[in-house]
Amino acid sequence: MEKNKQYPWSGCGTNKDITGCRFSLSVMRDDYVRHILSALKQVDTRHVWSHTDALSTTYRGHKFNVVNAVKELFIAANDGKTHMTLEATFTKGCPGDTEADIPLALSPKEKEVQEKKFDVLCKFSFYPMGSNDYMDQIAYVVNLAIDRNLYVGPSHYATELKGDVQDLFAYFNDIINYADEHIDHFIYQVTLSVNSPSTQ
Amino acid sequence: MEKNKQYPWSGCGTNKDITGCRFSLSVMRDDYVRHILSALKQVDTRHVWSHTDALSTTYRGHKFNVVNAVKELFIAANDGKTHMTLEATFTKGCPGDTEADIPLALSPKEKEVQEKKFDVLCKFSFYPMGSNDYMDQIAYVVNLAIDRNLYVGPSHYATELKGDVQDLFAYFNDIINYADEHIDHFIYQVTLSVNSPSTQ
Fold first, then answer.
1. N or C: which end of chain B has fewer CB within 10 A?
2. B34-45 tens-digit pLDDT
3. Closest residue to B191, CB basis, from A9, A30, A55
């Protein structure tokens, strides 16, 4: 182990109640730029900090607001026919996190996003960090998907889910609430897919 | 913690020297299906186990062969003008892994893949599991990127890299060799992007 350098994140760390999601929306059509920018503009980001870079967009804020904003983005982006995927990293508690880049209001907003329904194929991996009993935590998360009838089955390095977009995001909310309560630092890595020719 | 259920992966586990990569290639054009299938066909998969499902493709085998096959796929898929991303999860050592789905030859093959060069934008996150000193391991991996002049900077929940495709995959190989030697169970999550209008 090389120890002659400081941590790249030296001096960081936060006690604030900040959950984040870094996501990349991939739209499989020629005019993907218009499609992505249009979806991003439709999201009510008053309750999250939002930043788009060359690889992805990041939302930060209260966990409820972050999950809600990602759900709103995904629903806004789906035109019901174009194949698209959303790769998203929900996370909280990294020791390298900063006090900066947070929204003014950290409390959850009450409004629920739209009630649109459509089927989504999904894979996820759950990474509870710094703990020896992490497989117990992963088992809890997988078993909850089984209980909700979202579970398709295991596959190498991920768990596959299928379900309505509303049910999936309700499950994500519950996972992140559970993780927030039980785990200091966690990552919930998810990929959503709609309108894929592979699933027809 | 709910303890009334068995692990979904009960009975699994392997002592075999199997590294895996589960990846999704997103091609931002109308005829993405042809583009993806054509790239997959060009990869020499004689030294990896390969399986494509509705969400992604998985390669399993010796770590060298797996990284090599993913590199070959990414180079084959890049036509130099179409924006595409590759989201890939390199991993080894999951207690829920199986003895199955391995190639006949686990030894590394000697042939190097093609010498094509092009710039790639990249983000990665490294997750060493079941260990309290995981931030030390992450620091090593980030510092190695700094040493190789691949480091762009930190961003929320990921580290950004930029470099030639050959240098990036050489770095991935070194990270996975390091992780294989020092960490029982690790995940190296990476997203590569080429020909993006956001980087011009």
1. C
2. 999 999 999 989
3. A55
